[in-house]
Amino acid sequence: MRLDQLLDHTGLSVLDHLEREVTIPVLDGIQAQGDLIVIPAAIVGAAIDSAPARWVPVSPQGVDLLRATNGANPHTLVGAACHWTTGVRDTLALAVALVRNTEPAYLIHPEHGGTGIAPGYWIIRRQRELGIHGRRARPLYVHD
Questions:
Q1: What is the largest CA-CA distance in the chain?
Q2: What's the whole-model pTM score?
Q3: How does pLDDT run across 23-48, given as a tens digit for each residue?
Q4: Whole-angstrom Cα distance, residue 20 to residue 102?
Q5: Between 101 and which of 37, 56, 80, 82 could a Cys-Cys bridge form, CB atoms 3.0 to 4.6 Å apart?
Q6: DSSP state of 93
Q7: Which of 101, 99, 41 is nearest to 66 (CA)?
Q8: Structural domain boundaries of the chain?
Q9: How far is Cα 38 from Cα 95, in angstroms, rounded to an integer?
């Protein structure tokens, strides 16, 4: 799918500097879009637990996985055959959502454009960096 087709389908937009006729690659491995990391759930295994989780279908307009704060832009998940839940326990406390899709799903971001997620079971995590606060390291969440 091309970015312009995805934007027309969802009604979302991206910044003017992005090429809209580019084909969005659909990846079946670890990928990042700004401050979100998409990881096959099998890789993290016992580090996550979704029971009991309430799975919700992704609406045609998409769902913001990470809403804009501090001037950051939203990461919007779209996909016709896609369900998501925030009911996840993550030993690293970085999980934003779990995603199950039987067809390609896409993340759209105004600055980054689109990224494709192959069918599967995925954990979406935030990026975290360690900052120095006094003598102790303190995690800092990245906002793009």
A1: 50
A2: 0.85
A3: 999 999 999 998 899 999 999 988 99
A4: 25
A5: 82
A6: S
A7: 99
A8: 3-128
A9: 10
